Amino acid sequence: MIFFTEAVQYLITGLLVGGVYALMSIGLALIFGVMRVMNFAQGDFLMLGMYVTYYFAAAGGVDPLLGSLLAAPLFFLVGVVVYRTLLVRLRKGRDPQREMDAQLIVTLGLSLLISNAALMTLSPTPRGLPSSYATTPFLVGPLLINQARSYAFLLAIILSVLVYAFLTRTDLGKAIRAATDDAEAAAYQGINVSRMHQVAFGIGIALAGTAGGLVATYHPITPTVGMDFIVLMFVAVVLGGLGSVFGAFLGGLLIGVVQSLTLLFFPLQLQNIAIFAVLLLTLYLKPRGLFGQRVREV
Amino acid sequence: MKKGSRRRCRVNGLRFATIVVALLTIGTSLLVSLAYLPSSSAAADVKIALIVPLSGRYARQGQLKKMGAEMAIDEINASGGVKALGGANIALVTADAGDTVEKAVSAAQRVLTREKVVAGIGAWLSSFTLGITEVSERLHIPWVTLSYADPITERGYRYVFQSSPVAGIQATRALDLVVDLAKANGRTLKTAALVGDTTATSVAFLRPLKDKLLPAKGISVVVDESWSPPLADATPIAQKLRSAKPDIVFYGGINFPDSALFLQKVKEFGLAMPIVGVGAQMVSPEFLDVVGKDLVNNVMAAVASHPIRGQEALIEKFKKRTGEKFMTQDPLSTYANVWIIKEALERARSADPTAVRDALAALDLTSGPAASSLAPGRIRFDERGRRVGATPIIAQWQGGEPVTVFPAELATHKPAWPWH
To answer: Does domain A2-285 have CATH number 3.40.630?
Structure first.
């Protein structure tokens, strides 16, 4: 009975953590799926999202949950600007391999620039939002369900569903998917592929910023915090199948659950090893990840 | 698009990428060096290296250490510099140890081979110090460190001087204090939890507790959990503490967010056992902003130094020049370390690193800023390079400020027992 209660507690904790991982991962998956850009700076946009939410709360008294939503349009604009000034210029070539290399280097450089600029301007002093709901649980029988994480989880799920609906139900979403599947054919249909990329990148960055705001409700904020999340995001995206938004969502949830449930049987020290063991096993059984698309061979 | 223009575009794309990255790299390193390089150094200056983390997850501690060193240097230079060297000023050569042992070691190699330094200080994290001192030992440059881990002075090195009590001693003293405190409050400690990360300091603190100190007191270990920073979530630790209900928790966490997550979970799970941590990061002011003062109240930490009775003027001066809320071990120790090197220079009458090393080994100070900063007020190193009689301080959060509660003769406040 005690074991059962503990197992449920770990499962819930895992799901709550995983929900936010899922939200931050779908941003990365969307960008990769649509543009084939591995955005290494995603973690740093997440970090900036944490700071924006923090300053909204500290200076304007805005509730962090609301603040994280307010961050979304702001980060969409940032995404568009980054796309227009940096990434669009790399897309003019036609050699996919070189284009990929250039993108990797640019996003990695962007990541270094953002985190170091944050270190200089925002100082390394950790900040945080000592909200009451970060340390108050909902009591459900013997289970403790953290309030901040529950709110973050709910918002993350709602936003994920909205993104999914946007991609499958709206004309713009369908156009983005068309540009993903076959850029050339989409262009012949009158879809402005570059514009679709721009929108997708903007949404991807907006999701990172919002996820950051949600994380800020329970996690201390430092200029290097993005590094702690970027690896998890990549694992989630690869686990779910490169480029699949739904896959990344499940991948994120799965990581949270694996991270947590491992502790029923193994010491804390092995927590992250378990994640990578699951990743390797998945790739061994399904080399394209859980929901990976077949890649067209040319 | 024509073929030729396509190729040109591709080349342009790559060239653009290269330029962007080059600019980013140059920009970042310029910014970082502008921020962290010493401002000026006249020809006759004596240089001291300070290698501490200024980027990455431990940057805050490095920043604090730099504040302390700069304060000591300003004092020394304002009062006539090193008199034995004709009033030479002391200049600080700062380098960034980053967030990995490899980066710390390469920073040491770079600075210690390129700059002519008489001695060095650093690098906060014991794991880094272990790496850096291998370089300084090889180059015969004396190294004064605050790092706690016992192995730093167990390798037979001649150029390493540890101004802090080692972690093993801190664990012994912290345990003695809490056992006495419990007794005074009519409690006997029977069970303990050991929770901490896998960095050298935490291990050096927790392992002796587990292996010999706790068994010797008849206290059994009921929870023993460790992780490599960063900690994803502290729920499992809180869960285990809730099930096992230890009488006391010994905590060693070097990464600030890990400790904040841990304290939040302790509160959330309604756990009320006393917590004794190791290291100044447990009593750093940022806890007030990040988790609030209620969560840290009564948390104790064994530290190498902390403001003690009689240091009020120093603390005020530090707060005024830096705007910090209070002075903790990190600036206090570098402040003391710079003064220790200054005293050694006066006695060596030379800026030769080996002469400075010999002077450090022969040092016996009982007065002056160096001696008064570190308990119990005497600076003397044994043959291994450990400071003789170095006493850990136990600081405790009381009403939103960490205060010294042990040893009693240096304490500014009485220790509070967390259980009521």
So the answer is: no
